């Protein structure tokens, strides 16, 4: 078969055997990057093996000693690791505190050549959402760039499921949009949407891209299929948002949750041991619940991170809030 034939090993091989800069590239990887450029309406895209690979590879490649990173305090550990690997100075601003961000920029902007603002769009542990429009306005006022991690938003928000930046009408204002296939798309791999010159630069400067075996063609082929499905799932997205709203409302009634607006619904437990005990009790009731404990969250803030899917119905989970409240009362009595 000719290279690129849709039934060839270039599309279905289970291994790539090398980095993409050697023999690990494939026709389907380039096709996926092209399709991502098309759907996001941008000139540049580069695939990574995971969101972790993206976050530890992009920032060190783009920034040096004369540059500054301003990062939301609750950004994911992969972003923190990327900053630590970077030669740039970094500071953390208080979570979703745009006034604090502005105050840091007023104080520090003139000292550095390039400044990049880094934030998640949907935060993984609390399920809260950043105001992307405010970040865009701040980055424009202070001549910065904006790096947005959409790991927990891809597939779930926006008319086409392109993420929270699409949902909030801010796609054009994001300079580096990092998305993953490992969450809602239920696959693996990641990508960055950016300008073409940036993606070309990263190919030869991002160490986590250069020095790792590329993903197998079969993964890229599956991700290409999933991407096309995501674009057509608006009805499922509306169902999931409705389901999440109902669950959150019932949890609020039972005194377990205070606010939120996404499919990630955190229930704060506090003690590690209690969180483990409650998770076991809920699994006995046929709910797949896992305790989230340090170091994933700070000491004393162990929790359940309830994450719903569009394949669920209200009848599947409607008894959960009351049963959890009863279990917590029994455990603490």
From TrEMBL:
Stretches assigned to the Aminotransferase class I/classII large domain: 15-319
Claim: Transferase is one of the keywords in the record: yes
GO molecular function list: 8-amino-7-oxononanoate synthase activity; pyridoxal phosphate binding
Cited Pfam families: Aminotran_1_2 (PF00155)
Regions annotated as coiled coil: none
GO terms under biological process: biotin biosynthetic process
Protein keywords: Pyridoxal phosphate, Transferase
Keyword flag Transferase: yes
Protein known as: 8-amino-7-oxononanoate synthase
Native source species: Desulfomarina profundi
